[in-house]
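subagent[fold] <- orchestrator: predict structure for attached chain, return tokens only, no commentary.
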Amino acid sequence: MNNFQKNIDRLKADVRCGRTIFFVGAGVSLNSGVPIVSNIYSELADFLEITREELQIMISGRPFESIMALLLMDDHIRDHFKKLFGQKIPTATHYYLANQLINSNARFIITTNFDQLIEIAYEKTTGKKLRAIVPKGFDDFNPIQGEPSVIKLHGCISNDLNSLGVTINAIANTENKECIENILSKLIPKDEDYSLVFMGYSGSDVFDIGPALEKILTKRTYIYRVRHSNEEYRFIKPLDHPYQNLNGIELECNVSSPYLGRPQIRQFHL
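subagent[fold] -> orchestrator:
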């Protein structure tokens, strides 16, 4: 058995015992047509009729969320942003994550994504709505009790795009760091052995999530950092920045397969 498969088998055991937390980023929605940050910037540059280089000068040193908070104040940009996200179709990974909640392998999924693709996959599978917890509900959320949930650290795109702008504006405020740290402290135990699976998450949220995770994560956490790749092969390597001092590995494979059950994603249907 190769080293890749040994690590997958270890993860399978943790998932089945309920010892796994899934933390999901933009990579899992890529093949649904949801734009990642670099694509959003390219779209904005075209929309504003400036070059990508000129846009980079404008945004240099500023967090993505604060840029979006400013841009969404404009009605035309808001309309364009809504078209970029639009109504998308869940991939195999969204159904996989929904099934972890349905099968009680996980009580919640953490995500930085604005899209509702996990919720759509859950509803299509069960016929029921999945509870979404956004920043204004963090204080009252109890991860031990209640129904399955998706925790949306950066808010949620909905029919009311103005509300997304308000949420992003709050994230761009430095005071929100405490809010993020408090909710992640509720969700991620410090004194238990468990696996934390980052799927399609770059770890680039240095403005709010990064500092919180740096305080919370300990060596009792075993991290699987699953990076998205369109390549057919899979490989593993030691954890890279900013988790290099913690226990775990990095895996690279296709975490956004558009085909449910196809080989690219099957190994993660645990």
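orchestrator: received. Logging for downstream: The longest strand covers residues 221-228. Residues 3-16 form the longest helix (14 residues).
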